[in-house]
């Protein structure tokens, strides 16, 4: 731990001496806690970050239209235009990699879920399915199922390590929740939590806020914090030890996520890509979703606000939107690529700056909860690394089978638990109908332990009619719980 004199000097050099304003009022414990926290912050870097952030705020938001090009056809493939044979080859390649212990999943779970508005990590949220399963459980069970598919194909028992990036605000609760639920059937040693970094919150002049008289106001450094924290927490080393070559990275809030998707992994492996993005076609030209494209010859995600409406509406000769590859926070990386980014490019990541209402202690020692933005938070984004790839590819999938994000409270009516539930029910209905069953209500859920993507359902559903809210369970669950059918509440 640094001494008071050392910290005082650093803060004075970086024009942040105000942070010690209440030092003499603190008790011994608070002083020691404060010194410890101050010692973990790189104030020189924090100054540089603010300068960079300020520059980006004062730049005119320039429309990128004239510099944009769509993804070249050789770096793009769409599931709907690939024949069954090739699709089968991709899947088989992915399952083989899983069976060989070469695949890991990295879950981005450090966000604070402010729009959803619950006071616990989003992964613990249950969207109200008949089973009541929360997002973490659904994802863990999909991992278990895909491991068993890999075993069925190869005869080998491969392991998928589940790395979960949490943050200061989500770490303890997530850890506790997973432990209490016995890691939802995954092996404890193959579930590894690590914390992303934090960055200071600044006022508009670059002065760092105090959250309490002895606590600096910090916030998670964005989902692009993975690159630094993978290195700092020894996760890249752990991946190396385990022989992991491929990592599937995704957000916590997509209820349809195909975790460790063997088709996507197989596609990227076959194309010898070091970085890949799964995308969905935009729902409409004005949809507020980032699109994957090239800007000045480099791959990146362009936000809707960065292009004009005319460009958003451009169409190719087939009538499809020219900039159509909607980014859904679903990525493939080789571990070599992650190592390369962590070692060489992490500091070059773009800083995304947002004006926010930041609660703080003012110069009179009063706690203030501002009603309008009073400062900035800085974040890095996971997708800002495409430009560093040797070979970047994109894989387009149908939205209705792969993407439905949980962002908002139900009152918003969009990207909320209502739509998550509806989209999962619709997908599962289509699986059941494909397997020869019929669904006449809205609430039939298939356990991820029974089926990953619609397979293995015939024995359970062929020639059956499902007319009440039901969970179709796996054998393992039936043995454990009995064949529980949840009636009613088919919202
Ligand atoms: P979002 O940007 O949607 O943020 O995250 P959020 O925290 O879920 O929700 P809001 O904006 O506060 O309402 C997309 C994904 O990135 C993760 C989230 O957990 C989610 O899986 N994320 C976000 C992090 O892991 N760390 C961060 O600092 C921010």
Description:
The chain has 491 residues and is an alpha/beta fold. The protein folds into three domains: 4-58, no CATH class; 65-407, Alpha-Beta Complex (Spore Coat Polysaccharide Biosynthesis Protein SpsA, Chain A), CATH 3.90.550.10; 425-491, Seminal Fluid Protein  PDC-109 (Domain B). It has 15 helices and 24 strands. It has helices at 4-13, 28-40, 43-58, 84-99, 135-154, 171-180, 226-232, 235-242, 262-270, 309-312, 335-345, 399-402, 417-434, 458-461, 475-481; strands at 68-69, 76-78, 103-108, 161-166, 191-195, 198-200, 202-203, 210-212, 215-216, 218-220, 246-251, 275-281, 291-295, 298-302, 325-334, 352-356, 360-361, 367-368, 375-379, 392-396, 438-439, 444-446, 465-466, 470-472. The strands form eight sheets. The chain has an eight-stranded mixed sheet, sandwiched between helices. The chain has a three-stranded antiparallel sheet with strand order 1-13-14, with no helix packed on it. Strands 7-19-16 form a three-stranded antiparallel sheet, with helices on one face. Strand 4, helix 6 (171-180) and strand 5 (191-195) form a beta-alpha-beta unit. Helix 7 (226-232) crosses helix 11 (335-345). It is globular, with a radius of gyration of 24 Å. The chain binds uridine 5'-triphosphate.
Keywords:
single chain; 491 residues; alpha/beta; Spore Coat Polysaccharide Biosynthesis Protein SpsA, Chain A; Seminal Fluid Protein  PDC-109 (Domain B); 3 domains; eight-stranded mixed β-sheet; three-stranded antiparallel β-sheet; 15 helices; disordered C terminus; binds uridine 5'-triphosphate
């Amino acid at each position: 731990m640094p001494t008071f004199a050392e910290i005082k000097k650093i803060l004075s050099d970086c024009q942040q001496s105000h942070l010690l304003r209440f030092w003499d009022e603190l008790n011994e414990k608070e002083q020691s806690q404060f010194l410890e926290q101050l010692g973990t912050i790189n104030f020189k870097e924090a100054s540089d970050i603010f300068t960079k952030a300020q520059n980006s705020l004062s730049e005119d938001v320039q429309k990128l239209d004239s510099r944009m090009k769509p993804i070249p056809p050789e770096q793009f493939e769409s599931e709907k235009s690939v024949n069954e044979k090739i699709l089968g080859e991709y899947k088989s390649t992915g399952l083989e990699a899983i069976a060989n212990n070469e695949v890991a999943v990295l879950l981005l779970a450090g966000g604070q879920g402010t729009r959803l508005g619950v006071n616990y990590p989003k992964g613990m949220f249950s969207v109200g399915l008949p089973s009541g399963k929360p997002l973490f459980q659904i994802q863990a069970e999909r991992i278990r199922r895909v491991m068993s598919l890999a075993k069925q194909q190869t005869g080998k028992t491969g392991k998928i390590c589940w790395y979960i990036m949490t943050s200061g605000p989500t770490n303890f609760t997530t850890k506790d929740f997973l432990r209490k639920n016995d890691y939802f059937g995954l092996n404890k040693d193959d579930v590894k939590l690590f914390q992303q970094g934090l960055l200071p919150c600044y006022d508009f002049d670059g002065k760092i806020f105090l959250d309490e008289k002895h606590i600096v106001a910090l916030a998670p450094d964005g989902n692009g914090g993975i690159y630094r924290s993978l290195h700092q927490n020894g996760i890249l080393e752990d991946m190396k030890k385990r022989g992991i070559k491929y990592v599937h990275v995704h957000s916590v809030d997509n209820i349809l996520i195909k975790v460790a998707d063997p088709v996507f992994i197989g596609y990227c492996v076959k194309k010898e890509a070091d970085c890949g993005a799964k995308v969905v076609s935009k729902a409409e030209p004005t949809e507020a979703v980032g699109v994957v494209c090239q800007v000045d010859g480099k791959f990146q995600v362009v936000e809707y606000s960065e292009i004009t409406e005319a460009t958003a509406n451009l169409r190719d000769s087939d009538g499809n939107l020219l900039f159509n590859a909607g980014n859904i926070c679903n990525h493939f990386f080789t571990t070599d690529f992650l190592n390369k980014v962590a070692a060489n490019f992490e500091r070059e990541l773009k800083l995304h700056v947002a004006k926010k209402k930041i609660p703080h202690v003012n110069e009179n020692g009063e706690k203030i909860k501002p009603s309008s933005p009073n400062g900035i938070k800085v974040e890095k984004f996971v997708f800002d690394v495409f430009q560093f790839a040797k070979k970047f590819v994109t894989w387009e999938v149908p939205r209705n089978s792969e993407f439905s994000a949980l962002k908002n409270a139900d009152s918003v009516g969009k990207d909320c638990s209502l739509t998550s539930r509806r989209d999962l029910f619709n997908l599962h209905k289509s699986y059941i109908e494909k397997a020869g069953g019929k669904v006449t209500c809205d609430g039939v859920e298939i356990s991820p332990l029974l089926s990953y993507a619609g397979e293995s359902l015939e024995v359970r559903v062929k020639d059956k009619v499902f007319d009440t809210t039901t969970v179709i369970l796996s054998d393992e669950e039936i043995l454990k719980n009995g064949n529980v059918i949840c009636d009613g509440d088919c919202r």
